[in-house]
Every structure is written in structure tokens, then in C-alpha cells.
Amino acid sequence: MRFVYLSDLDNNQKNFYKEADRQSALLSMLIEKDIDFIGAGANFYQVGSKKDWSQFPLFADSLLHRSNSLISLQWMEKVEEKDIDEHFQQIHKNYPLAKLYTVPKDQPKTYGYVMKNYEPIYIATDIYPRDEKNTPLIGFYSSRERFNLVVEEFLTTGRPSVSDKIRLLQDSLDQSAQKTGMLVYHPVFTSDKTALKGVMVGVVRITSYFDRLVNSTSLGEELVVRIIDTGFDAGDDPIMYQSSTWNNFKGVDYTTSVKIENRLWKIEYKSDNKLNEYQRLTLIWLFFGILTISMLIAALTSVVTRDKQRIENLLEIRTKELRYMAMHDDLTGLLNRRAIRDVITRYIEAEKPFALLCFDIDKFKQINDTYGHPEGDEVLRHIGHLMSDTLGNNVHVSRLGGDEFSIVLKLNNIDELTLISEQIHDLVATSPTVFNDFEIAQTISLGAVLWQGETLEELLKAADQALYQSKTMGRNQVTIRG
């Protein structure tokens, strides 16, 4: 009897650890997907020409519809102090009532330019959704030191930056308002990657993450969570989320962490490690079974064992599904940006000869505008299938976001790289997408580079430069760098 009781407690503890790991993986996956969506918004301004920027609401709408937590995208364009008036003439075409303003730290809303050193500012120039909550943000710029540190970090790392917990301006300017959001800043560079055009800001309601986290907990009341932000500037309010019954639990503790770009979230879990209702009933029946016949004991023990195995199998299946979702693009089924970076890192660490190819679909926005977004999605899936079916299992194909793809494959020399790059380019051009009995033609601009000892970031930059050269030569081109 005591043995079964202790066995149940031990099994509950193991399930608790597995569930905690699953919850952490789910949280990381949800945040990374939002960061990828915001990166796609940044890519719209980075690769598109200014005449196309007016189409931002259409593009942003397709991104926000894929997320329950990403509530707004803001384009903050870099503007010199001398150009502010001219810039607002352009803003007033869409937002005639917009005024330049900022909200200094611990101060009320302040109109006009307040920077002391006449440095450029990043002005909220366009926003989506364009509703009554968001449009008052047009004309806003940040005058706080924290934003300047973010810009400096962009120039050093080239990576997005995530804020601590904040009050959303969409909710209220009141300093006493609850902090329910965070900002993801994504750099938008000039074509030569040496300076910033501006910043794409994704506004995320973090309570959506935690609602999904709690609602998806298979152990229900037996598991409580606290999430603590250990990143920069989080000291005054580090607790991102805490279950309402956190202080009532005195049982098993488990701590893990999730890295989100420049921040590290510590996730603490507690379980009271008590038997659930089913387990308590099982022990009662087991007690009476001992007083009657041994066969009943054997039968009950068998039921308990099978049920434990079922729960463990279900948890294992869900964990595998989450691992897959965290490393793959949900539209094409290809590897995502994080997964392909891991592949490249492994190749570099093993010092294996390989090549990196990156390509964009030429005039993909025109395909979406002409045929529609469902047809555009079909083009992305078609190209993903072409690459997977043609290149085989020994080649790693990924969708980086939007209409950008990359391929990592083992190669020894520049001639082999040139040959396969041309084959891929010709394959896409001669394999139109067939959708609803009509064909959509597409071409790609491709840049490829052979690894010669560079770091990950150096290699990615070289491939991006080769791709950019293909675009500047008129698109539908292949550029190879040895």
C-alpha cells in the first residue's frame, strides 16, 4: 500500500517536470513566432522601395492575423532634426492631425523636439491597425536613454531587441496603468547594412502568452507558474507573470529559463505533489481489495500502470510536436530561421566544407497583389516542395520569413556551387505554380557563398550581399561569391 502511494507521488513528480519543460518550450515557440512576424515587417521596409511603403497596412494585416498576441506594428523612420518639418508634410497625407511628441521618463506627454544634442530621432510614421487606439501614436518618438541603447545594440549585433514589461500606450498614458505588454524592436538597415533606415516596432500583449500557457496546462490546478525577467532594466518590476495561487503551494519546485534575443526569462514552477482524485480512489479500492482477494489487487494495479504509461506517452507525443513546431515554418514545413542558424553553426564547429545559398522570389508582392494572398502562400509552398523534392534529405532548406529562403549543402569548390545554383535558379523559373487550374510564373534572385572559415554572422552577411547584388543587376540573377 505504501509502496503504491510513493510510486504515484514519484510518477506525479516526473510528469510535473515533463509538463514544466513542455510549457517552457511552448512559451519560447510563441514568442519566437511573433519575433519572426515582426522581422517580416522589417524586411518589407528594408527590401521594398519607398513607393511601395504605402502598401504597409495590407502586408501588416496578413501578419497580425496569424498571431493572437501581436497587436500592432509601428514603422519608426529615422529623421534628422533639420528634416522633421518636411517629414511631417508626408505624414499629414495619411494622418493630418499628427504632431511630434514624446513621453520622457517619469514626465507627462511633451510636444516638439526635445533632444539636446540635435541627434536624429525615430518617428512613428505609419502604424497598423489604423484605429482610434493606434493613430494617436503617429508622431511619437522616444527620448529615453533605453531606446538609444537599443539603437547602439542594433549597430553592434544586427539582431532584434526585446524590452522589459511596459505599459502599452494603446491602453493608457497613465503611469499607474497595468503593465501588460512588451516591445520588440527590429532594425531596418540601408542596403549596405552600415546604417539604419528606421526601426520596426512590434507591440506584443504578453498576457496572451500567459493565458495560453495556463489554459494549455494538462495538470490544471496541480501546477503553478512564475516568470521573472532577469534582463536589463527589469529590476523595478521583474515579475512578468505569477499564478494567483503561487503562494499557496509549498511542494516541489522546478526552475528553467527561456532566452529571448537579448533577455533571459527565469521560469519557476511549483506543484503540491498531491495525489489527484483518480489516484486517491485507486488507493481506496486497493485497500479494500487487499481485504478481499489478491486478484482484485492485481487488476487494479494493472489499470494504474496502464494509465500512467498512457499519460507519459501523451506527454512525450506533445513534446515531440512542440520541438517540431519550434524548428519549422508553419506554412511550408521547411526549417525556420532559428533552425537553419543551428545547422550552419554545427557545420562551422565541425569545420565541414559547405555552401550557403539565399534567394528571394522576384516581385512577390506583385504576385500577392495580382492573384491574392492565398495564391501567394501557394507559391511559397510550391517552391518549398521543389527544393525539398529536388535536393533530397542531405540538404537543409529553410524559409527565413516572407519570401526569403536559404539552403545549406555540403560542397567543396566554387564550380560545384555555381552549377547547383544555376540549376536551382532554372528549376524555379521553369516550374510555375499551378493553383485552381491556372499557372503562376515566378523567378528568383539568388546569392551563394562558399564557407571559407567565416563566423556565422560574417557568412550570413556575405550571402545577403550576394543576394542584394543579384537584385541590383535587375533580379532573376545568380551571384556567386567564393
Automatic annotation (TrEMBL):
Its cofactor is Mg(2+). Its EC number is 2.7.7.65. Coiled coil: none annotated. The chain crosses the membrane at residues 283-304. Residues 127-268 form the CHASE domain. SUPFAM superfamilies: Nucleotide cyclase. One of its GO terms (cellular component) is membrane. PROSITE patterns: CHASE, GGDEF. One of its GO terms (biological process) is signal transduction. One of its GO terms (molecular function) is diguanylate cyclase activity. Gene3D superfamilies: 3.30.70.270, CHASE domain. It is found in: Membrane. Its main location: membrane. Residues 352-482 form the GGDEF domain. Keywords: Membrane, Transmembrane, Transmembrane helix. It catalyses: 2 GTP = 3',3'-c-di-GMP + 2 diphosphate. This is diguanylate cyclase.
